[in-house]
Structures are given as structure tokens and as C-alpha cells.
Predict the structure.
Amino acid sequence: MRDDEHDEDAGEAEITADTEATVRCPYCSEEVEITLDPDSGEAQEYVEDCAVCCQPWQVTVHYDLEGRAEVTATALDG
């Protein structure tokens, strides 16, 4: 890489997206830290089991333009 190429890249702001979040289990009410995958898109929905009580959640993740994630976990059965 040439030095002038490195200087051009250094001027660009790098956005670091959230890769972890803490959610409250809708079943046992415990706070649980989950891992996020920003490479899966700005809007995501998937099922994940609670690490405490093993009940399944519907996890919804929305990333904003700054890479901040809004995460909700709801009971899978309703």
C-alpha cells in the first residue's frame, strides 16, 4: 500500500456497530447478554433461547446509521 493511499483511508470515519446487547427475558425476567451480528443486516428477526431458563424468544434487532442496535426479546408464544 502506498503512503498516500493510507492517508486517504485514515480520513474516513469508521463506524463500529454494536455486537452485544443486554435484554430481559420475557419468561424469567433475568437480564441476559446476547451476541449480535451486524453483518446479518440492519433489520433482523430470529429465535434464541434464554441462557437462564431455556425458553425461546423472538429477537428483533434494528441498527441505525451509527451502528447502534435496538434489540427486543419477546415471548415466542405470544
Q: What stands out?
A: Strands lie at 20-24, 31-35, 43-49, 56-63, 69-75. The chain is about 10% helix and 40% strand.
